[in-house]
Design brief:
Layout: E1 5-7, E2 10-12, E3 18-23, H1 28-41, E4 45-49, H2 59-73, E5 78-81, H3 95-106, E6 113-117, H4 122-134, E7 139-145, H5 152-164, E8 169-174, H6 179-195, E9 200-204, H7 216-219, E10 223-227, E11 237-238, H8 239-250
Parallel strand pairs: 3-4, 3-10, 4-5, 5-6, 6-7, 7-8, 8-9, 10-11
Antiparallel strand pairs: 1-2
Length: about 250
Amino acid sequence: MKRTVQIKNLTIGSGMPKICVPITGITASEIISQVSAVKAASPDLVEWRVDYFEQMKENAAVEQMLAGLAETLQDIPVLFTLRTDREGGKAHVTEEAYEKILLHALACPQTDMIDVEVMPQQESAARIIKSAHEKSIPVIASNHHFEGTPSNEKIDCIFSCMEKTGADILKMAVMPQNSRDVLRMMERTLSWHEKSERPLITMSMGVLGCVSRMCGEMTGSCMTFASVTEASAPGQIDMTSLKHILQILHQ
């Protein structure tokens, strides 16, 4: 039986793919400005990309910002994501520093959900995931390939490794070099959707991969990322347009 993930009033893993909008402000004032615009667009959930935040290593500043996000967003869940430069993000941190920041976020009551990079630091990821589950916080195990699309065998191996961590949702983002890469990633998503109990999130990035952000209900990808103010990855679509497309495909 396919599992679902419940956060506040949101159920991830059933129905239309849920739309997540990133917050990418560098300063506290930029984040506050962005979150107001994002809330007005009414996404299903918000991803705070902490790696953009200039004070990401300062516990008090992160706590204050999480509290502010929760107060403004209210029923909209917050996904805490620290994307490292190893996986296309802005955070140039050691594995130890990465783990420390995420464990501190898990101690904050305003963290509704957390993203954990699994490959290759699997031991560190396992500790973070264990801590999250002890606090009943759902985990997205994530893996990103900005240089290309892995072989089918490697995709399967990565999904298998992520599944063994016990994470609640498995996420993979890849960069296609051609249309066949996009179709291949969609096919592997459907294959894993059919055999795994866990919800999946997949996407092919860039202009070539835009279609993969729209057709998750067909392939088994339970969430898609859209932009309101600034995109956090190549190929993100404007939220208003994407929501309209998802509704059409759902009907």
